[in-house]
Amino acid sequence: MLKISRQQRLALLKPDEAFVEWYTESFMPDNLPHFYHDIENAMLRRMVLNGRRVAVSKGFTDPSTQAHFITFMWTVGADFFEFPVFAAIVNHPKLSPTEKIDRLYKVDGAVASEVILKADDRAWFRVPGQTSGGE
C-alpha cells in the first residue's frame, strides 16, 4: 500500500514556482511592502526561493512554516537562525516546525533587535549549511 505523508501532500500543493509567486505577489505587498517595492522583482523572487531552501534545510517542510521562516529572514535578518537564541529554537530536535515557529515569535524583542543590528543580508545568497559566524 502506498503511503503519502502529510508533508508530501503539502509539498505537492506549493511547488517552488507557485510558492514564490504566492509569497511575493500575494503576501509581501500587504505584509512586507517596503521590501516588495524596494527590491527588483527578479531579485526578490530569487531571495524568497533561496529563503525557502534554507527553511527546508532547517526542517520546515510545509509551506506555512516556510512562509513564517522566510518572513523572519526579512524582518529579523537573513541569518537570524544562526544567532544563539534563534538557533536553539530552530535546531531543537524535539519540536515540530509549528512549535518552532510559535517559539520564534516569543523571542524577547531586545534579543531580536540585537540580531537585526548584526544580521548579514548576504545570507540570502549562501548555500544552506554555510554560516556567517553571526553570534
What's this, in brief?
The chain is mostly helical and 135 residues long.
C-alpha Rg (nearest Å): 15 Å
State the shape: globular
What's the number of extended β-strand segments?
0
| Number of helices in the DSSP assignment | 8
Low-pLDDT windows of residues: 8-13
Structural class: mainly alpha
- How far from one another are the termini? 47 Å
Mean pLDDT: 88
Please, what is the oligomeric state?
Answer: single chain
Determine the fraction of residues in helical runs and give it as a percent range: 55-70%
Order of helices and strands: HHHHHHHH
The main sheet comes to: none
Q: Which percent band covers the strand fraction?
A: under 5%
If you had to describe this structure to a student in words, what would you say it looks like?
Helix content is 64%, strand content 0%. The protein has 135 residues and is mainly alpha-helical. The longest helix has 17 residues. The protein has 8 helices and no strands. The radius of gyration is 15 Å and the shape is globular.
